[in-house]
Design brief:
heterodimer, A: 4 strands, globular, B: 7-stranded mixed sheet, 6-stranded antiparallel sheet, elongated
Chain lengths: 581, 673
């Protein structure tokens, strides 16, 4: 844990905090159908034309049911579209490698994966997908699934802020505005920046280069003495993969690939961009509910959880692996297995924490090769529901569900029946809030337990023992949490894994989203109790602590037994025995 | 009823509660409490495991775990039975008063027939004479009587009940002491006030409150989550080569599900209603108690609530050329025949100037003019002096000329300070003014100050003019007032406060208060009030003390805080239980994880047993807190939260570490494992 790391960590958190306000203020304008932005002069005509084309009246608002139905219908259409593109890519343009159609299970898994903002990849991009499939079939979702997440969060925030109404905004308006005013321009700028750092952006076929050293004989893709260097329109995809917390790499090695993440600066900015919108959304929350202190209390809770996860992961990774130290490996660099030498222990630990705190899933190191405790952190981050900043929108609405539960659990202690920002939390609200959480937990634990005792489940593992269990847990956590990163030691491209993971992703996204929208609808119709000295304080350090404790206790209590059998046992096996698996 | 307060752990109540704990093992009654139901199912499973043993665990271990699981359920039942026990004891006392009486029913032709009280129906007319017990709830339609209501209120002083007005309601079971009254029955048998009271204190009509329902949903959801954890632990363990025994899985499950709050939730709610009863307030439902905690606007009538019922003379302000003694003497003489409290207070104030109160008989030659509402004056004609005292305009009419300027000034000063001016005149000469003041009850200012800290707004309602109202409201330390209020203004005010999102509490006794009482979130009707008022409100104050509204709010808050504190405590407890059980379950297959046993518990078996024992004992340990309620402190939300979070949150996190360790030491010292 060196000084360089500390400085970078301070810089990272500092910048994240500083940028929350400007990003939040911009979000306030984007998420208001009548909001004005500096891009209006260019984009307003486009926006109007889009509404006319779609037959949408931007002044009308929907109630939660209509909003949800629009969102679900749109997602379903997108899912089918991408499935079709993947199955038919050999008939479609931009396929210089002449790749064949994607298999049905894998196509289903991939289509679900991108529709749900997960970007779990059971394929290697450069060897499975045409440029058209990547750019149209997948990047399309990188934009719209991110926008849908932000829109859903905006609906919940509106539900909290408004009272005695059913109107919660208009899905098509939110979708258009978020893409037009936020994601497209930001991605454009970001991809130009990435290009300046050396991220490739072309439509060339792969380059075959003469290798200086002979590649590993196990790698079937390389012929002896030659190396295939993949090419393609990476910069444009990487920009939105980060900003929209999608995480699906253009290349299989994701952000560890030098063409996706070439420089220390690109690494730093990519990490920042993953959390940027989610961090700004907390400011949007404070602003919209007219209690900026609440926005910052939520931000602080996220920042605290984030800091804790980075520190634990960093400490575990920089400590190295005692088994290797005993064999004479210098522990000074930390545990370097599965890490880019360019990034080292700190940048890998920070990236792992960032990408799993958010539902991004981009990786610049192999989480599978982390020390047991170092690997536990990304896993646990995902299992908490990715509410530590979290995926764009999804992080905030997930955290707000925890806020409602925290308020309900502790709210009585001020001598009033629980109320959140003037809204009484009643039986119905509790019911749908816990439903959202329960779905998450059931999917992760249920599918993992199933896979752990079946032939198809265990035969896909590259590791036996507790580490294998971690791999299974990680896969279903990542799928359910719509993260998309993998504990890569598991071969997920089998019909069973493709289908079960797709189901986990669907459950984690849409079965959670419906209760969240219902919560928004319920809160919006309530009367608002005017704030007074007796109101439950949802701003300030005390609330931050309550929120952190609620997230940790609920998460820990649910997953500790499973984690105990996986990474925790593995940790003690590594440090306290000479057992090998 | 006030006379039969029971101590918290009355021996008879404890004995009966222990018996009831077993009766409540009936699955039908357990089913209402999902957490305890799951615990009981777990206990059944481990007990069956004792019969068909797999042979892996010692019988002693399985037996003891089963025993303590049963205790967990029994302790929760006991908590509920204890809470109900106090109410049941009170109900028994009440039933004794419901002796069968013979009523004198009036036939249409005016003749009387004797019928048993149970045969009376609504709208029957009965005659009750001195010494008889009123056979049913009703309204006096003729006559007046003094009534002993101690059976209901515990107050032995008789009260006057009379036809017409707001004192016409009588309660079945109370005794007429003097005179005779004609009563129209207003309740059928089984629906009388006494019946409702018995049902209430007995808990027979108890329904879950909205917050209890919501909390039960959350507790059930946690239970379901932990069930999923336990069910998936089997397969995950099988992958890892660990086979968990049913006993240890059930033990882990029961320790994780929120048994503490699950076991005490009902007791807390019943105890809340019971604490109201201890204060002689009958809450018609737990919902009303809960609403009392949520109230943030208190509507208080000025008279009787904020001020003592009457004004009192506070100062004499003489006219130019009149000494204060002269004025005091004249005012006292003029008030001797004024039997109103105001008049008496003038006599008392004059004594401080050396004029002892004279009895009317001492002045046989004097002609007294008593106070009347028409003349609004009282006075005396003595030795040719015609002394009058009364409302300024009445006195001015009497003297037939203008009042001197300096006296007019005094009058406006008095009015401006919220007082009521009286003029004193002799013949055509104005002697000066008397300052009558509303006396604000002692201690109210502090109380309202505390309410403000809790975020509760106090609003005074009065028929006085705005000037007077403002002065009194200022003196009492109230936030707001409504002056020149008519009865219908109350209803309008409540509606507008509710529309702004506030919850309103009020007291009332008159029939014209009934709509407002019904509209208010907490409407406390005075027991002396009309039947209509009592029907409309959701609480009845047997002492008819309007100031008690304040205590009602405090009890409501106390109940909510107790529920919240124990919920937080219960969930925070889980962390330590995890650290006891998880290492114990895994250490067999993975001896390397021994360092996770941070409490240093002796063996896996004793660790699991200790956690289960602690989990059961904590319910018993918290029963007194659940029944008595956490100490209420009038603090703002932030301060309250901080305090309770520290005690019950942090305390709940740390206490079980020490507790489980202690139990483990005892278990090992006694060689239970």
């Amino acid at each position: 844990m060196d000084l360089y790391g500390w400085i970078q960590l301070a810089l990272f958190l500092g910048l994240l905090g500083l940028l929350a306000k400007p990003v939040g203020l911009y979000l306030v304008r984007v998420l208001d159908a009548q909001g004005k932005t500096f891009l209006d002069r260019v984009l307003k005509p486009v926006e109007r034309r889009l509404y006319r084309f779609m037959g949408v009246d931007p002044r009308k608002e929907q109630d939660w049911i209509h909003y949800t139905v629009s969102l679900l219908a749109f997602s379903l259409a997108g899912l089918l579209f991408t499935f079709a593109v993947l199955r038919l890519q050999h008939f479609l343009p931009l396929n210089p490698q002449k790749l064949g159609p994607v298999g049905p299970h894998l196509a289903f898994n991939t289509a679900v994966s991108f529709t749900t903002n997960t970007n779990w990849q059971n394929y290697a991009g450069e060897t499975t997908l045409s440029y058209f499939s990547q750019m149209v079939g997948l990047v399309f979702h990188n934009f719209v699934s991110a926008a849908a997440g932000i829109a859903a969060a905006a609906v919940l925030v509106r539900g909290i802020a408004r009272h005695s109404t059913r109107a919660l905004g208009h899905f098509w308006v939110d979708l258009v505005r978020v893409n037009l005013y936020l994601l497209l321009p930001a991605s454009l700028i970001f991809s130009i920046f990435l290009g300046s750092q050396g991220v490739v952006q072309n439509f060339n076929p792969a380059v075959i280069a003469a290798a200086v050293e002979t590649a590993s004989p196990r790698d079937s893709r390389t012929e002896a003495g030659a190396q295939t260097i993949a090419q393609g329109p990476a910069a444009s995809q990487v920009a939105i993969k980060m900003l929209g917390t999608n995480g699906g790499g253009f290349f299989n090695a994701n952000a560890a690939h030098p063409y996706e993440n070439p420089t220390p600066l690109s690494n730093f900015i990519q990490m920042l961009s993953i959390l940027l919108i989610s961090s700004g959304l907390t400011y949007y929350l404070g602003r919209t509910v007219r209690n900026q202190g609440h926005g910052w209390a939520v931000w602080s809770a996220m920042a605290l959880l984030f800091l804790a996860s980075v520190l634990i992961c960093w400490r575990a990774e920089s400590g190295g692996n005692p088994r290797w130290t005993a064999l004479g490996v210098d522990p000074a660099a930390g545990n370097m297995e599965g890490k880019e030498v360019r990034f080292g222990a700190f940048d890998s630990a920070l990236f792992a924490s960032v990408t799993t705190a958010a539902s991004c899933g981009a990786v610049n190191s192999m989480h599978d090769s982390f020390t047991p405790l170092g690997g536990l952190i990304p896993l646990f981050n995902i299992q908490l529901g990715e509410v530590v900043f979290g995926g764009v929108g999804a992080g905030l609405y997930g955290m707000l569900v925890f806020v409602v539960l925290a308020v309900f659990l502790t709210g009585l202690m001020v001598g009033r029946s629980p109320e959140y920002l003037g809204k009484k939390i009643e039986a119905y609200d509790v019911k749908i809030s816990v439903l959202a959480v329960v779905i998450l937990f059931f999917s992760i634990l249920g599918f993992s337990a199933w896979a752990a005792v079946t032939q198809w489940g265990t035969s896909a593992l590259h590791n036996a023992g507790p580490h294998g269990l971690s791999e299974i847990l990680y896969a279903y956590s990542s799928g359910t949490g719509n993260n998309g990163s993998a504990f890569a030691g598991l071969n997920g491209d089998s019909p069973s894994y493709n289908v079960t993971l797709a189901l986990a992703m669907l459950a984690g996204r849409f079965l959670m989203l419906v209760p969240v929208m219902a919560l928004a609808g319920s809160l919006a119709t309530k009367k608002r109790i005017p704030p007074s000295g007796a109101s439950f304080p949802v701003a300030g350090w005390m609330f931050t602590i309550i929120l952190v404790a609620t997230v940790l206790i609920v998460g820990a209590l649910t997953f500790l037994p499973a984690l105990g059998l996986g990474p925790i046992v593995e940790h003690f096996v590594m440090t306290g025995s000479s057992l090998l698996y | 009823m006030a006379a039969i307060h029971h101590s918290l752990f009355d021996r008879r109540i404890v004995g009966r509660a222990m018996l009831d704990s077993f009766k409540k093992l009936n699955p039908l009654s357990l089913r209402k409490n999902p957490v305890m139901f799951v615990t009981a199912v777990g206990a059944v499973m481990t007990t069956l495991g004792l019969v068909v043993r797999s042979g892996k665990e010692s019988a002693g271990f399985v037996f003891q775990i089963s025993l303590w699981l049963w205790f967990t359920v029994l302790f929760a039942n006991f908590a509920e039975a204890m809470a109900e026990g106090r109410g049941k004891a009170q109900a028994r006392e009440l039933r004794k008063t419901r002796t069968s009486t013979i009523a004198n029913r009036l036939r249409e032709d005016g003749t009387i027939e004797a019928v048993p009280a149970e045969r009376l129906r609504k709208a029957d007319l009965v005659l009750v004479v001195a010494g008889e017990i009123i056979p049913a709830d009703g309204e006096i339609i003729e006559g007046a009587a003094s009534v002993d209501e101690s059976a209901i209120t515990g107050e032995s002083a008789p009260v006057i009940r009379e036809a017409g007005g707001d004192r016409s309601a009588v309660t079945g079971g109370t005794r007429v002491l003097s005179d005779r009254i004609k009563v129209r029955v207003t309740a059928d048998p089984g629906e009388s006030f006494l019946d409702r009271m018995i049902n209430l204190v007995e808990g027979a009509e108890r329904r879950k409150t909205p917050n209890e329902i919501a909390l039960t949903i959350l507790l059930s959801a946690l239970t379901i989550i932990f069930l999923a954890v336990i069910l998936t632990l089997g397969p995950l363990g099988r992958y890892s080569g660990v086979s968990f025994t049913i006993t240890s899985l059930v033990a882990l499950l029961v320790c994780l599900i929120p048994t503490t709050i699950g076991g005490l939730l009902n007791a807390i709610g019943i105890a809340g209603i019971d604490r109201m009863v201890q204060k002689n307030v009958l809450a018609m439902s737990g919902r009303a108690v809960e609403a009392a905690g949520d109230v943030d606007v208190l509507l208080l009538d000025k008279t009787g609530t904020i001020t003592l019922g009457n004004r009192q003379a506070a100062a004499f302000l003489p006219a130019a050329g009149v000494t204060i003694d002269e004025l005091a003497n004249a005012a006292q003489l003029a008030s001797l025949a004024d039997e109103t409290p105001e008049g008496r207070s003038i006599v008392v104030l004059a004594k401080t100037y050396g004029f002892r109160g004279r009895a009317l008989s001492e002045l046989p030659e004097a002609k007294f003019i008593p106070f009347s509402a028409q003349t609004r004056m009282s006075g005396v004609d003595i030795d040719g002096r015609r002394i009058r005292k009364g409302a300024p305009d009445a006195v001015r009419a009497f003297i037939g000329q203008n009042v001197p300027a300096e006296v007019l000034d005094s009058i406006s000063v008095i009015s401006f300070s919220g007082g009521t001016p009286l003029l004193v005149a002799e013949g055509s000469r104005v002697l000066g003014a008397v300052h009558l003041k509303d006396i604000v009850k002692g201690g109210l200012r502090d109380r309202f100050e505390r309410f403000r800290a809790m975020g509760i707004k106090t609003v005074m309602i009065t028929g006085d003019n705005p000037l007077t109202a403002a002065a009194i409201a200022r003196e009492a330390g109230m936030d707001d007032f409504v002056a020149e209020a008519k009865p219908e203004d109350k209803l309008r005010l409540i509606r507008s406060e509710q529309a702004a999102g506030h919850l309103v509490a009020m007291t009332g006794d008159g029939t014209n208060d009934a709509p407002a009482l019904a509209q208010a979130d907490v409407g406390v009707a005075m027991n002396t009030g009309t039947q209509a008022a009592k029907e409309a409100g959701n609480m009845v104050d047997l002492d008819s003390n309007p100031t008690k509204l304040i205590e009602v709010v405090e009890i409501g808050k106390q109940m909510l805080i107790t529920r919240g504190a124990l919920t937080t405590f219960s969930i925070a407890n889980d962390v330590a239980k995890y650290f006891a059980i998880i290492p114990a379950m895994l250490v067999g297959a993975f001896p390397v994880i021994a360092p996770l046993n941070i409490m240093g518990l002796r063996s896996p078996a004793s660790a699991i047993l200790s956690a289960v024992i602690f989990n059961a004992l904590i319910i018993i340990a918290l029963i007194p807190l659940a029944l008595r309620g956490v100490r209420f402190r009038p603090l703002g939300a932030t301060a309250l939260l901080k305090r309770n979070l520290l005690i019950y949150g942090l305390g709940g996190l740390l206490a079980p570490f020490a507790g489980i360790k202690l139990v483990d030491m005892v278990v090992n010292a006694l060689h239970l494992i």
